[in-house]
Design a protein that fits this description.
Helix content: 25-40%
CATH architecture: 3-Layer(aba) Sandwich
CATH topology: Rossmann fold
Shape: globular
Number of strands: 8
CATH class: Alpha Beta
Distance between the termini: 61 Å
Largest sheet: 8 strands, mixed
Strand order of the largest sheet: 1-2-4-3-5-6-7-8
Radius of gyration: 19 Å
Number of domains: 1
Amino acid sequence: MNRVLHLIVLLAILSFSTRNAAFGDEASIVSITTPRGVQQTFILIKPEHAIASVILFAGGSGKLGLSRMPPPQVGPYAFVAGNFLVRSREKFAAHEFMVAVIDAPSDQPRGMSGSFRLSTEHAIDIGPIADYLKSHADVPVWLVGTSAGSWSAARRAIAAGRDGIAAGSIDGLVLTSTVTRIAPGSSFARRFPEFARDYPDGVISMALPEIRVPTLIVSHKEDACEFTPAADAPALAKRLTGSAQVATVLLSGGDPPRSDPCEAYAAHGYYGIEREAVDRIAEFIATNSKHGPR
């Protein structure tokens, strides 16, 4: 074997080992058929003794481009590959949480639009994931969304007991870097004028009083994204009048940004303080979960 070929093979082995270590021995890709007849695929990480389960909703299009070749991995060109929740999935598992990182469903090949994230169809797709997790560990199931993923998480929490959709074993909600402003004239408003009209305050404009489960709001004080300012956290919390428990966590610090303000490697994505962010989320989940068979 010549030196160049040997180096290529060695790099391939190292890359495979790194990806495998990042996912852990109990990681897999699962695909289930939802009541709508579409395929909903997700990364599943199973700790030995789960104390809770979390369904993680990435921002952007939510399209992970998952590969079925072992070890399971996010597609190399997936826009959300570096998303805060996607890259922190093992940190959640380290808290003994069963983790599901969901991909866009099969009928959304280009990723999830804002209108789809707010649809009844999307809420329907999420329920079977919660039930799947529940069938593997009878522990509380929490929804955790970040940025545009906050629409998805909030929509499913609202759907519990509404729209003819069963609760789907949802026990709690975490909203991080929540979309709370759609600035007139912004790229988002131009692309989705109906949202600028009907949801000028983003998630705050949703039917949040219908949410009953404990809810945590996490923001970064230095988040410079125009759609997700930390200053809106109190207004968001104030709308959660029906939640069993509401708390707000404001974080600060981290590494210098190496992406645009609304992307993953900036304060918006808790860059450099991922562990602290996950630890605070895990603390709230552990404190506000009812463990054991119900």
